[in-house]
Amino acid sequence: MMFYTFNQNNTGGAFDLTEALTHFVIVEAESADEANAKLIALGGYFDGCSIGRDCWCCGDRWYPAREGEGSDAPEVYDRHPRDYDAGEYSKRWMPAGKEIVVHHEGKPAEWF
Ligand SMILES: [Zn+2]
Questions:
Q1: Between the CA of residue 21 and those of 41, 57, 78, 95, 101, what are the distances in Å?
Q2: Which residues of the chain have pLDDT under 50?
Q3: Domain boundaries in the chain?
Q4: In this structure, which residues have their CB less than 5 angstroms from ion ligand 1?
């Protein structure tokens, strides 16, 4: 299994923050296709601009993972989620400890 990181774009000036989704959503999967399907099952979607859901000037909210992008462990910008510093920008948007979620296969989600 690999881990695929989705970096949510706050299109239209807002993030989708749910019980499953936040700024960085990391999904454990066998392939990029499976990770993309899992993101959709969690409430994500792709091609938001073409379907009229996302702001055309900000761009799509979610971009599909591609083969080759997976990593052996959960990562945000090459760091383990616990070592990632969201910085002031993200702290304005996400509650503390809700910047990153890791959806493991067969285990409860882990938040950072
Ligand atoms: Zn816009």
A1: 11, 22, 20, 13, 7
A2: none
A3: 2-111
A4: 55, 57-58
